[in-house]
Amino acid sequence: GVKLLLHGLCSNTTVKSLDLKGNNLRTMGAEALGKLLRQNKSIRSLILEWNNLGVWEEGFSFFCQGLGANNCLQRLDLRNNQINHQGAVELAMALKQNASLQELDLRWNNIGLLGGRALLNCLHSNKTLKRLELAGNNVPSDILKAVEQATDHNQDRQTILRETQNRTHILSKEVLSLKDEKAKQFLDLMDTIDKQREEIARSGRLSAAQVSQLQEALDEQHSIMNSLKAKLQMTEAALALSEQKVHNLGELLNATRQQQTSMVERHFTELQQQKQEGADREGKLLRDLSAASEKNLLLKNQVKQDLTNTTAELKLRAVQAEERLEMEKRRFKQSLEDMESLRLKEVDHMTQHIEASERSMQDRIQRLEAIRIALEEELSQVKAAALTERGQAEEELIKVRNQARLEEQQRLEYLEEKLRLMTESRDEAQNCCLKQKQMVAEAQAKANQLSLHADGLRRRLEELQQDLNSKEEEKVTEVNKVKVELQEQIGHLQAERTAQEGLREKIAALERQLKALSSNHREALLDKEGEISMLLEKLRMKEADISRMREEEAQRASFLQNAIMAYVQGSPLGTHSSRK
């Protein structure tokens, strides 16, 4: 694993410090480390504490060869690696060749006397090693002191060399800077003399040309401001027209709503009147039936009384009683037939009256449906007119903006950054318009759904009419069940009432949707007004910037004139003319 890691680090140029402490590295690890030290040029610190690199002499000698060939390592830690005097000799040979290592830690090894002498001898030729730790290696104190003196001597020598190099570098820089400054001063003097001569000739021409250019620029800016003001007036007029149209549309919507409410109230009052009439007729029929039943009871009582009276008289006048009984029976039959005919006539009259009332109700329902269809058509026409007017207003706004954009691009190139902001605002406005169009399309889809729902209601009404016709036929066939049929009619009337209430609720929902649409249109108009106010503020800012530019150009022109006058007065030609 260490071999693969070190092989990968051979070509690395970012790692500055490598710590492989306590990894039990041996021959293969030592060879891989030697190869790393030969090829790598970025590692400055290498820690190899608690390994066994000194046990195998061949691997350690390969490591020392790599160390001798390295020129970038500055710190090496080899503590507790079982390095003997032979390994120390190889390290000394590597240190004689190395010229970059500054710190070497060899504590707690087996270097001994021979290894210590070899390291001390290598310090005479190595001038870069500042620190060498040899504690715990059975090295005599004399050799340790000599090693410390040699390392201190190397450290002092390196500090002196650094100071001398820094001083020489600083002095060389100062000398070069002085030379450059003198050459620059001489060249600057020559250039200034030549420039003064050339500028004396050009100053008059440039001043005249600049004054003419400034005047032309001011004239162009005046024309641009006038065109912008005209465009603003046109846009304000267009906005006023659009506001008037929106106000007219709102009035039309309010009128249609009022008409709808009045029609609904009328329909409701007519239904109540019809209900009251039906209830009165039912009461009359019930009263007539009760009177007829009372008359029948009275007749029965009278017959009983007559029979009791006649039983007494039968014994005496049998023949007279039989004749009288027959006459009374005939009269009673005629009275019963008359009563039945009257009752049948009253029932026919009531059925005819009910049919007429139902026909009138159907006619009124058809009229209400025709009125509702006309109102829906008017609403669709109003919506289409609003959409067309909105599209025309948007097209006019887009045309005006495009013209302003083209003119500003042709005449005001130096204001391109500000125009970019205007174009971004225009894109946002277009996005808002697209969103409003989407909202209108959604509202149209909702209106279509409502129309489909209204068609379904019409179908239901037709089905109800068919049911009513069938029930009317049943009524003709079942005259004897008048009470039951009247109760069924009352139930049907209640169902129709509920259906009418549902229609009212749907009309109220449509009115709410219309209110929502109107509120959305108002919000869109308010957004457009806000955008227009923002555009006006931006135009005001542009006018302020243009006025500032004019003032700055006037100040620059005055400064140029003053500078030219001062230069002419201060030049040698001016002094000669003044002396003359």
Automatic annotation (TrEMBL):
It is found in: Cytoplasm, Cytoskeleton, Microtubule organizing center, Centrosome. Its main location: cytoplasm. The keyword Cytoplasm applies. Pfam families: LRR_6 (PF13516). Keywords: Coiled coil, Cytoplasm, Cytoskeleton. PANTHER family: LEUCINE-RICH REPEAT-CONTAINING PROTEIN 45, NY-REN-58 ANTIGEN. The lineage of its organism: Eukaryota, Metazoa, Chordata, Craniata, Vertebrata. GO terms for cellular component: centrosome; plasma membrane. This is Leucine-rich repeat-containing protein 45. Residues 211-245, 304-410, 440-552 form a coiled coil. InterPro entries: Centro_Cilium_Assembly, Leu-rich_rpt, LRR_dom_sf. It comes from Nipponia nippon (Crested ibis).
